[in-house]
From TrEMBL:
It comes from Ligilactobacillus murinus. This is DUF910 domain-containing protein. Pfam families: YqgQ-like. It comes from the Bacteria. InterPro entries: YqgQ-like (IPR009256), YqgQ-like_sf (IPR023164).
């Protein structure tokens, strides 16, 4: 799993479609849904960790973009 699209496809496999309207919020909601899937033993640890890393990276990039936009 390498991109945010890959994480979206994983969630879509479980019938979870995330669109809040702001990319940062979408990423945060995806992380919550991913946590819930892992707690329910629907995904294994390796898939969970790789998806979580992607979301963490994308969240950081989006925060930097928002900060740069405000300057």
């Amino acid at each position: 799993m390498k991109t945010l699209y890959d994480v979206q496809q994983l969630l879509k496999h479980f019938g979870i479609f995330v669109y809040v309207g702001k990319r940062l919020w979408d990423i945060e909601l995806m992380a919550i849904e991913l946590d819930n899937l892992y707690k329910a033993d629907a995904i294994d640890k390796q898939v969970f960790l790789s998806a979580k890393l992607v979301l963490t990276r994308e969240h950081r990039i989006e925060e930097q973009y928002e900060a740069a936009k405000d300057i």
